[in-house]
Amino acid sequence: MLSFKDIKFLLKNKKARDTQGLFVAEGRKLFLEAPKEDVEQVLMSKTFAGMHPEYIGMLKEHTDVIADIEDARFASLTDTKTPQGILTVIRKPHFDLQQTLAGSCPLIMILEDLQDPGNVGTILRTAEAAGVTAVFLTENCADLYSPKATRATMGSIYRVPHFHVSNAPELIEWLQEQCGVTSYAAHLRGTRSYTDCTYRKGSAFVIGNEGNGITDAAAEACGELIRIPMMGQVESLNAAMAAGVLMFEAQRQRRAL
Amino acid sequence: MLSFKDIKFLLKNKKARDTQGLFVAEGRKLFLEAPKEDVEQVLMSKTFAGMHPEYIGMLKEHTDVIADIEDARFASLTDTKTPQGILTVIRKPHFDLQQTLAGSCPLIMILEDLQDPGNVGTILRTAEAAGVTAVFLTENCADLYSPKATRATMGSIYRVPHFHVSNAPELIEWLQEQCGVTSYAAHLRGTRSYTDCTYRKGSAFVIGNEGNGITDAAAEACGELIRIPMMGQVESLNAAMAAGVLMFEAQRQRRAL
Questions:
Q1: What is the pTM of this model?
Q2: For residue A132, what is the nearest residue in chain B, using CA coordinates?
Q3: Four-residue CA torsion sign, A20, A25, A29, A32
Q4: How many Å apart are CA B164 and CA B110, to the nearest integer?
Q5: Which residues, other chains included, contact B46 with Cβ-Cβ below 8 Å and sequence gap of 6+?
Q6: Which end of chain A is less packed: N or C, by CB atoms within 10 Å?
């Protein structure tokens, strides 16, 4: 059984999460939607357990459930201002790359060096809604298993196949060669509007770092640089917003088939 | 000239901002894009002023610029983890409702009781990019002039006409009667996909509270309940994301005219 110190460490430290293959999900939704077989341990504050006694039994046969933690001590575990009172320690999900990409016409998101964990998590959530096949994250991306990113996924972290890669350009080339997937990147040099391209065949969108956009190498590897037409004096959309607008345009085109 | 205590109060307290008609914008971008005539006071940390001496002169003729604040003292003013070192006290912008709605075919956002200041700010930013005519906020919305919302606007707060209203249903009816604007709300009871409606005429989108969605009264007042088709097990999109997807779909249709 993990100690409080272990759990605090898992919440704060990416290396600990990577080494142990575990992460800590906060809140009820992430507890309820977690694949039972992957849950390692559950912690509840006294108040939470008192208000939701039904939660205590749910996983008792599968795993260790500690349901009598003093509220103040529980609060000290997390950075959340108003913790819901339940933490779930979970083994990181593993997805099969070949199986994931086996279907026809995949729709793929490539996140290159995104810095904001909220953006990374929100993109996973939106990707599930838009029917995205897989999300790839470069190794310089904010950690999807950090508490903030995990919360922002609203449970999609369990269901959207996601994979880590060292860099975007090699992935873009590999997707083109192995799967016939064309990669598109929203870019200042892009000339065609994103609504003028067709995403009905296998397609990938590359989303770049919040401050710097996508790297030159990734832009060069892409089949097409596109732009999201913007009015006013706006220089760029929020990275998750740009991702959402692109994914739902692809979904719109695919539904219209 | 405002004291440190006054400024702290403006940063933390909505009532103080409402009563005084002032707000405090953090960071360089919001300083540089602020309408000069509305700036009341500028504060810089010693380090910031040393690194950017050109900023000191920019508004000196218009307003009070304090450029010698000890870094630790400056940091104590804000909640930002790594403050950029510049705060701008600004009079809230005022927009003319009649003038704003005078053009044909307005595209309008109605934010009903949104709770997350980051969502409110992000919607303003995205609204500018999507060419939205005006954003309306109900009085139970998170304050657009709070530091978090202001930062998320990335400067759009100065440029996107926005208005406060007591509630959404009356506004929806007023927009229909006075301006011929049809209001659409993404709703669980919605049957038509958002991509099957036409937003080329005057249109408004109602975005509801993050937890509860839009109120029944607002849903009833709307001309049409729509839905954003979602795959997987996702119950809803993030409120700002839903707003962005709808605004850019309207923009796509309008560009195609």
A1: 0.95
A2: B231
A3: positive
A4: 10
A5: B67, B68, B69, B70, B71, B74
A6: C
Give me the tens of pLDDT residue by residue for chain B, a chain 257 residues long: 899 999 999 999 999 999 999 999 999 999 999 999 999 999 999 999 999 999 988 887 778 899 899 999 999 988 777 889 999 999 999 999 999 999 889 999 999 999 999 999 999 999 999 999 999 999 999 999 999 999 999 999 999 999 999 999 999 999 999 999 999 999 988 989 999 999 999 999 999 999 999 999 999 999 899 999 999 999 999 999 999 999 999 999 999 76
Contacting A residues, span 14-43, partner chain B, CB-CB under 8 Å: 33
Note whether B132 and B251 are within 8 A (CB).
no
Amino acid, single-letter form, for residue A41: Q
Chain A: residue whose CA lies nearest to B152 = A238
Which chain B residues touch A160 with a CB distance below 8 Å? Answer: 232
Closest approach of B249 to chain A, Cα-based (Å): 8
Asked if B125 has any chain A CB less than 8 Å from its own CB, the reply is: yes
Range list of β-strands (E), chain B: 22-26, 39-45, 64-69, 86-91, 107-111, 134-138, 162-165, 182-186, 192-193, 203-207, 224-227
Contacts of B255 in chain A (CB under 8 A): 193, 195, 229
Answer whether B122's CB lies under 8 Å from B128's CB. no
- What ipTM, to 2 d.p.? 0.94
By C-alpha distance, the chain A residue nearest B252 is A195
Question: How far out from the chain centre does Cα B106 lie?
Answer: 17
Instruction: Round to whole Å and give the CA distance between B103 and B246.
Output: 21
Cβ contact (<8 Å) for A129 and B234? yes
In B, minimum Cα distance to A131 occurs at B231
